[in-house]
Amino acid sequence: xxxxxxxxxxxxxxxxxxxxxxxxxxxxxxxxxxxxxxxxxxxxxxxxxxxxxxxxxxxxxxxxxxxxxxxxxxxxxxxxxxxxxxxxxxxxxxxxxxxxxxxxxxxxxxxxxxxxxxxxxxxxxxxxxxxxxxxxxxxxxxxxxxxxxxxxxxxxxxxxxxxxxxxxxxxxxxxxxxxxxxxxxxxxxxxxxxxxxxxxxxxxxxxxxxxxxxxxxxxxxxxxxxxxxxxxxxxxxxxxxxxxxxxxxxxxxxxxxxxxxxxxxxxxxxxxxxxxxxxxxxxxxxxxxxxxxxxxxxxxxxxxxxxxxxxxxxxxxxxxxxxxxxxxxxxxxxxxxxxxxxxxxxxxxxxxxxxxxxxxxxxxxxxxxxxxxxxxxxxxxxxxxxxxxxxxxxxxxxxxxxxxxxxxxxxxxxxxxxxxxxxxxxxxxxxxxxxxxxxxxxxxxxxxxxxxxxxxxxxxxxxxxxxxxxxxxxxxxxxxxxxxxxxxxxxxxxxxxxxxxxxxxxxxxxxxx
Length: 513
What we know:
Blueprint: H1 2-13, H2 20-32, H3 36-49, H4 54-66, H5 70-82, H6 87-93, H7 106-109, E1 114-123, E2 128-134, E3 138-144, E4 147-154, E5 161-166, E6 174-182, E7 192-197, E8 208-213, H8 225-231, E9 236-239, H9 252-263, H10 266-272, E10 277-279, H11 283-286, H12 303-312, E11 330-334, E12 337-341, H13 362-374, E13 379-384, H14 404-416, E14 422-426, E15 432-437, E16 445-450, E17 467-469, E18 474-481, E19 488-495, E20 500-507
Parallel strand pairs: 8-9, 9-10, 12-13, 13-14, 14-16
Antiparallel strand pairs: 1-2, 2-5, 3-4, 3-6, 6-7, 8-18, 11-12, 15-16, 15-17, 18-19, 19-20
C-alpha cells in the first residue's frame, strides 16, 4: 500500500510524457529537493514498461542511496552498467550521489582514468586548449612526440576537470597528442589521444568549413547526430547555446549531471577529440526558459556560480570580461574570418514595450563595437544565441525582436562605419533557417540559423525565411572561401541522415555598402 500511495504522488510530479532530456534531470532535482521516494517510484514506473534504459537504473540507484537503501542501490547501479551506462559516470557518481555504495565498486575506484574528453577546444594559429575530466583527482599532461608540452590538475573543486593550454605551435599544421594521467592510485591509466589542425595564419585566404548548431538536449536515439556532423569533416564546430539543457541555475548538482551525461556520449566524445570546438550559452544552459540575467554582475546570486560551472566544462579562449564581469562572449579568428561570439543572457534586461532595454549590456556592446571596428578580416561573423531576424518566434520578445532599438543601433553602427563582409549565425529555434535581414542603411545581412542538433521538440517552419526546415534534426554547415576571384560564403543545411537539403551561396560582393 505504501508504494501505491507514492505512485499516486509521483504521477503528478514527473509526467511520463515529458521530453527525454528532462526526465532524469528532473528526477535528480526531486532527490536534491528532499523527495527521493518520488524519484524512486517514477523510475520504477518507467522500468516496468521498458526495463532496458540505463539512465532509469542510474537515477534509481541515486535515489535509493539517498533513502539509505544501499543493497537496492548497488543492484540498480550494477544493472545500469550492464545496460551500457559508461563506467565513468558511475565512477563520478560514487564521489557524491552514490557515495554510500562506493566501497562496493572497487574496480571503478581503485585507479584514475579519463572520464570525459579529451576535448579539443579553442585552437588558434599557434596554440590550442584541451579539456579533460578524470574519475578522481589527478595530474594531467599533454604529450606530443614524447614530450610534455602542457600540464594541468583536476580536483574535486573543478569537478575533476582541467584545461591545458599548449603554445608555440605552427599555423595550419596537423598535430596528434595524448593526454597522460598520473595520480596516487596504484594502477596506471592508458593515455587518451587527440588530433587537430591549428588555425591558418591570421589573414590567410585558405578556405575552410565549420559546423554549427544548438538544441543538443540528450536524446539517445539522436546521438548519432555527432557522427553525421563528423562525416562533413568540419575544420571547427560552434555550439551556439542550449548545449545541455539544465534549467536549474540554483542547483550545481543538476548542472553537473547534465554536463556529465552530454560529455559521456561516445559519438560526441569522438567528434570533439579532433574538431576544435567553441561554445556560448543560451537560456537553458544559463538560467531558465527565456530568462534575463539583469544588469548586475552578482545578481541574481546564482549568476557567478553558473558561470564557474560553464567554465569548468568548456575550453574557450575567453569568458566575457573575466572575474570582474563574468560572461561568455569572446572573439577569435580563423584565417581571413573573425568570429564574435556573443552572450545574450548574462546582462540582458527585460524587454520593454517602447523597444528599449538591452540584450548585450553596455560593457559587451562597447566591446563588440570596438572589436568589429578593429577587424581587418574579409568576413566578420556575428554569432548570437538567438535569432536576429524579425518574426522568427512569432510575437515573442525573447529574440532580437525584444530589443529592436539595440538591434537598429548595431545595424546603424555597421553601416555608418562602412563595415563590410558581415554575416550572422544564430540558434535557439528548433529548426534550420536562412534569413535576409534588411537595414535602414547598408547592405542586407544574411543570417544562418540552426538549433535542432538532437532535440525531439520542433518549432514550425517560417514562410518569411529564405528557407526553413524542421522535418528531422539538422545542423548548419558554412564554408568560407575568402580567396580567389570570387570570395564567398556557402551555407548548407544538413540533416541527421546526412542529406543536404538547402544550399545558399553569398558572394562577398553582396556584403558591401
